[in-house]
Write a structure and sequence with these properties.
single chain, 273 residues, alpha/beta, 9-stranded mixed beta sheet, two-stranded antiparallel ribbon, 11 strands
Length: 273
């Protein structure tokens, strides 16, 4: 990738209860990409559309009302109509990001962790939160050292919100061992002062195995994450920004404009530079 490329083009999927498409599009555009919100039916009607794009994004929301379990209906719609096209898309040098419900869809499609081929072999699941309640709060995350994830290059920690009812990551023992060995558990819930959450509420908000908040495939090009980086792309998105603004002012520090979630989207765009 030595040559300079025009702004990468992003499909931000929409339809049937996906509701974070605008924010996700904005995050990609602020990072220098050209993003289009496209309805799943329009892709099914004209699957060659995928050939014109470099990045595919499954935003958060409640696709099909999560009626058969989070992300399952949208995953089967894709599986039944676009499985070959998705395999071809992934086989090119492309990126894919699933956020929250989008992570559930990617897990149901087997795209992440993708240990045995790209599409159609689910290996992990996102179960109901241990509290049996929808959780909406800010969390701290630590990036797995030496993870191959393209999206997390140069990032060590993140402070972003979660908002989900089924984010409790589960994988069978032998699958988890393979995920850990390849460093594919790229984000983990952490304590504000550092160190893993250790399964402790509220730091691990849902009971996820090994505090796993995100998983990528072995190439690092495909990633699914429960937390919402697109909800912290401006400093003023933070829940504590007014406190921090005053703190930075008193310490004579510059007050940031951007939120730290933007770095993920910028990494995706820089991948094609």
């Amino acid at each position: 990738r030595g040559m300079m490329m025009a702004a990468p083009r992003v499909i931000v999927l929409t339809g049937y209860g996906i509701n974070c498409d605008d924010e996700t599009r904005l995050a990609f555009e602020m990072s220098g990409a050209k993003a289009d919100i496209i309805h799943v039916n329009d892709i099914i009607a004209a699957p060659r559309k995928l050939d014109e794009y470099q990045i595919f994004s499954f935003p958060g929301g409640f696709s099909y009302g999560d009626d058969t379990g989070s992300g399952k209906a949208l995953a089967s719609r894709i599986m039944n109509n676009l499985s070959d096209e998705f395999r071809a898309f992934i086989a090119r040098d492309t990126l894919m990001l699933g956020i929250c419900n989008g992570f559930q869809v990617m897990a149901n499609l087997g795209i992440v962790p993708g240990l045995d081929g790209a599409v159609g072999n689910p290996q992990v699941s996102l179960e109901h939160n241990v509290t049996s309640r929808y959780v909406c709060r800010w969390v701290d995350l630590e990036v797995e050292k030496k993870t191959p994830s393209v999206f997390l290059k140069g990032i060590t920690r993140l402070h972003v919100p979660v908002a989900h009812g089924e984010g409790n990551f589960y994988a069978p023992k032998e699958t988890l061992a393979r995920i850990e060995k390849k460093r594919l558990a790229c984000l983990r819930y952490a304590k504000p002062e550092g160190g893993r959450a250790g399964g402790e509420l509220p730091f691990n908000p849902n009971g996820s195995l090994a505090d796993i908040a995100a998983v990528c495939d072995p190439t690092g090009r495909l990633m699914g994450m429960m937390p919402h980086p697109e909800r912290n792309i401006l400093f003023t998105h933070r829940e504590d920004w007014t406190f921090l603004k005053e703190k930075y002012r008193r310490e004579g520090k510059e007050i940031p404009v951007e939120g730290e979630g933007l770095a993920l989207f910028r990494n995706a765009v820089h991948y094609f530079r």
